[in-house]
């Protein structure tokens, strides 16, 4: 079947099987390997992307479900060579170690930056429940998100 | 996943027409269904994507009621429900990504024994409106992953009567976010309701607790009340005895946090 959607601001089309997962299309179809597959069972959040502006797990979504909608991956977050303020905050606060979970953390973090009114630590931690980091890096990640929420106008 | 066809009808009538038997499944958010398909726990010949049907969208008020479209994601309900207990319940489901994708109707149709929404519909005395009839929450859940829905019957919306006050408390499984036990307490126009989820194959009401709260809607009214262990679930997450101990604790916690709501 044919799917057409907006990917990082660009109109794209692809031929997929009905049971093709969105993450498989992104990685194998479009070469966007920044979206990681950690567990493939919906637990770890490494595959988090945005669907119509909200963080979702691309290993628990069919490519067909994205048809006609808008998808944002980690590759589409920076504008040109300029990091998004949240990415800059991750770098400044050393909010990553091995980096495997980082794209998913940034994509969930962007959802929280967009939807939380204040940098409340409990709310940020609740919002990161679906993203696992195995380098025990949660604290600087929470701080980077809190900083970015605090800085938004 | 086994191969399947994917259909996206444009209306409820088309969706129900496309569902020609048990071999086909409706797909809403897919947060439980796709995980089940990966594990090959189900082998539908086709998925019928109903997530974008206009009839299943939106939250609106009716006289004394809140009507929530079946395809409303948990996150939207958490942000927009005018019943604070329902917003709180929806905001506690799973994790951020699941709440953004998973839907009210999908959760009810799946009838996981640890569904938060099961406590919501039973505790608030909601009606489940389908393409063909209205089902009272009390008649909806028949067993573990088993509901009163007929093959092909599609949930369109859920109608909640506005409670005078209500609150939900749960002990989250730290890995999944599912309630090990969840308790919703509500004072409604029809009386007190106490509904429990996660503790047995189906959600259930605690009439003894409800009677105790009729005169005094406070944690103290539940002093000394216990729950029989016999019918409660035991699994790797909790023993039946632990669940029995949690129920009164969570009922009191819900009363303490929502008593003045």
From TrEMBL, chain A:
Coiled coil: none
UniProt-listed InterPro entries: 2Fe-2S-bd, 2Fe-2S-bd_dom_sf, 2Fe-2S_ferredoxin-like_sf, 2Fe-2S_ferredoxin-type, 2Fe2S_fd_BS, Beta-grasp_dom_sf, Diverse_Oxidoreductases
Keyword Nucleotide-binding: no
Gene3D superfamilies xref list: 3.10.20.30, [2Fe-2S]-binding domain (1.10.150.120)
Pfam hit, one: Fer2
All residue ranges annotated as the 2Fe-2S ferredoxin-type domain in the record: 1-77
GO molecular function per UniProt: 2 iron, 2 sulfur cluster binding; metal ion binding; oxidoreductase activity
UniProt keyword list: 2Fe-2S, Iron, Iron-sulfur, Metal-binding, Oxidoreductase
Protein name: Aerobic-type carbon monoxide dehydrogenase
Species of provenance: Paramagnetospirillum magneticum (strain ATCC 700264 / AMB-1)
UniProtKB/TrEMBL annotation, chain B:
Molecular function (Gene Ontology), one example: FAD binding
InterPro entries: CO_DH_flav_C, CO_DH_flav_C_dom_sf, Diverse_Substr_Oxidored, FAD-bd_PCMH, FAD-bd_PCMH-like_sf, FAD-bd_PCMH_sub1, FAD-bd_PCMH_sub2, Mopterin_DH_FAD-bd
Keywords: FAD, Flavoprotein, Oxidoreductase
Gene3D superfamilies given in the database record: 3.30.465.10, CO dehydrogenase flavoprotein, C-terminal domain, Uridine Diphospho-n-acetylenolpyruvylglucosamine Reductase, domain 2
Every FAD-binding PCMH-type domain range: 1-165
PANTHER family from the UniProt entry: XANTHINE DEHYDROGENASE SUBUNIT C-RELATED
Name of the protein described by the UniProt record: Aerobic-type carbon monoxide dehydrogenase
Organism phylogeny: Bacteria, Pseudomonadati, Pseudomonadota, Alphaproteobacteria, Rhodospirillales
